[in-house]
């Protein structure tokens, strides 16, 4: 695959997972300062990794949520919890992943992730 192919595949996958509105906002807000970074994540995260056939989007979503929760990356975690509506991961799936995360990454970081997930699922499913 060429870099152009990776970018195109990455953009398609990124849109499928995060939604057009999110990607359009990121593209609109892109500047010369972060253009290379945006290209990098589109080609590598979305084109090379998220587009691989070995795992389903649901499985990748749940792994990503566990890792982001464990690392305390709340902004990215919120984005990926919201993306579950596009990946097939359910609130029950996220709950199980976060319970699992509590054992292996710690209760304090998972406590914050649970609060975040609860707020997001409440706002999207009142």
From TrEMBL:
It is an enzyme of class 4 (lyase). The keyword Lyase applies. InterPro entries: 4CMD/NDH-1_regulator (IPR052512), AhpD-like (IPR029032), CMD-like (IPR003779), Decarb_PcaC (IPR012788). Keywords: Lyase. Its EC number is 4.1.1.44. NCBIfam families: decarb_PcaC (TIGR02425). This is 4-carboxymuconolactone decarboxylase. It comes from Fibrella aquatilis.
